[in-house]
Amino acid sequence: MAQSVATALPKRAVAVDKLGVVIVLIIAAAWLFLPFADFKPNRILPGEPRSIFAALPFVEASILALILAVSIPVTLFRTPTIIRLVLSFVGLGALAIFIGKAGYYLTPEGDKLARIAPGAGFWVFSGAYALLAADALTRMRLGPWPRIAILALVALALGLLLWSGAWNSLSILKEYASRADAFWREGRTHVFLAFGSVIAAIVVGVPLGILCYRHRRLRTVVLNTLNAVQTIPSIALFGLLIAPLGALAAAVPALAALGVSGIGIAPAMLALFIYSLLPVVSNTVVGLVGVPEAANDAARGMGMTDRQRLFSVELPLAFPVILTGIRIVLVQNIGLATIAALIGGGGFGVFVFQGIGQTAMDLVLLGAVPTVALAFASAVVLDAVVEMVSTKEPAND
């Protein structure tokens, strides 16, 4: 009996989670070696590192340290997925709240020049908890609507923190306060460039993809040409478009009156449109090629014309693949639109390049953080939409 109990003990031992080991090492390294916040006498000078207990009052620092300490065993071993998810959101929430507290705590009273920025440790902690949350959500295999709901709740929580003023003493919010009007203006431009170029690519790319599907020789020429264009670096393409668009605006005053010129939104929009064509066209072709022959045979047997078959059978079945290409394009263009600022196209890249020129990293973050957030939110929503459309496909069969 004793022997059987002894042999059973190893099976009851708590298993170590492989990803959890990596996350724990990340948390431990950030705790031991990286600052939680940086104190800067002004927006230009390098920051002075502050650890958790130097950046926060003792009670708040102890609470955060306790959360980090509890995270280690829960993450290291294979614990229930829901516990890991809750812990990740508690960790992210605590970091968001306490970095705001650090901003008020470290700012000298009456000092309007000092800047308090999140330190490397804060960003690494946030990355570790985000990785833990992503792993838990993947294991839970949530459907599209729950994922969108979680995204909405996260956005609501961030909005409440911004509205409450909890982060107002942080350097990035001070940069925003002095550029609020410009931030929203460039934000609208960024959205217009990213989404407008994608819409134009859909309008042109889907019909072009249908033609390529119908005509094999055209498919080879078009896809090879678009593949070649993709090899041109984005900055180079923006630069190449300056001269022809400038000459076109000079030759056709009506186009110049519409805003077409060698610099500005026009070359940026055109370059993003060109980059968007390959994923849209190729995914349209792949989606149509992947339509089961049985579906086409059934449509022919019902007496459908080629046009009816295209719109009633082929395009609906190919739509999930086409939508996947649109998702790729949108996320790509949200990032590429940042470079448009180099040719006067505007967007969040204005703050990124101004910050680089002024060696003001907080200004760089003012442009980079919303760009990343917009790309992430767009990816989550479109991923959910693709899944919704894909899961409906079998029901239509």
Automatic annotation (TrEMBL):
Its main location: membrane. The chain crosses the membrane at residues 19-37, 52-70, 82-104, 116-137, 149-170, 190-213, 234-258, 264-289, 310-330, 336-356, 363-382. InterPro entries: ABC_transp_perm/SBD (IPR051204), MetI-like (IPR000515), MetI-like_sf (IPR035906). GO terms for cellular component: plasma membrane. The keyword Chloroplast does not apply. It is a multi-pass membrane protein. The keyword GTP-binding does not apply. Keywords: Membrane, Transmembrane, Transmembrane helix, Transport. It holds the Pfam family BPD_transp_1. Belongs to the binding-protein-dependent transport system permease family. This is ABC transporter permease.
